[in-house]
Amino acid sequence: MSVSRRVLTRGWLTRSVRDLLRGATDDIAGSRYGRMAERMEFIDAPVSKGLMSKKRVFFGRVGEGADAGLTLAFSVESRCGCLKHIDLLDSCQKRAEVITMWTVNRIDHVVLWVRDLEKLLAFYKALGCDEDPFMMGLFRQGRIRFVKVNIGPNNSIDLRPDPGWRPVERERGNMQHLNIVIDGVNDIQEVIAEIAKQGLKPDIGPEVQGGAWGFDIYDPDNNRIEIRLAAQPK
Fold first, then answer.
1. CATH class (in words) of the domain with range 109-229
2. Which of 1, 30, 72, 120 is least enclosed by beta carbons within 10 angstroms?
3. Cα torsion 91, 92, 98, 101: sign
4. Residue ranges of the domains in the chain?
């Protein structure tokens, strides 16, 4: 859809997208898209501040109704601060191009509700995790509401106590399992023997999981934890 000399503001962009959807009704998916136009919320809508020609992809999300949550991608071209051209993209590939502006680094931490903090701390320490003493100090002072258990140098589990919280049955929660990879040992039986000294034993396995030996064990609040060796089986 070509647009003649419209100043590129959010208001003009919004109206242009809705006009585009109404005009595309017969070519795309019947009256469904026409109805969407009335409920569209715009994400990352570009507003030009310079005189350079720009092309950009942004998204319109349906905020309510039967199509709530559905997102459409649009291509916008502007020149000298004016909206020149706008198109509806029918390919998800354009959306992926926008996402590659950044790179996902890692999962930093997972937060678990806990009923008995001391019991959970003892469990994760028995698996070789380290309690973060600084964060524990803040917790004891009432400055934060969780205790951090470090899993290696860059990841952690945050234990957030709630005496009124009740664990769900095993395999009934939203998280199927959490995987912890361990270094420094090549025989899974050595790990099993070591945790046995703390009164723990595998609930599932040991078996080869993901190309390496491991086992699954439930913590006291029924969260399923997979312990896996970094070393590959010979």
1. alpha beta
2. 30
3. negative
4. 2-99, 109-229
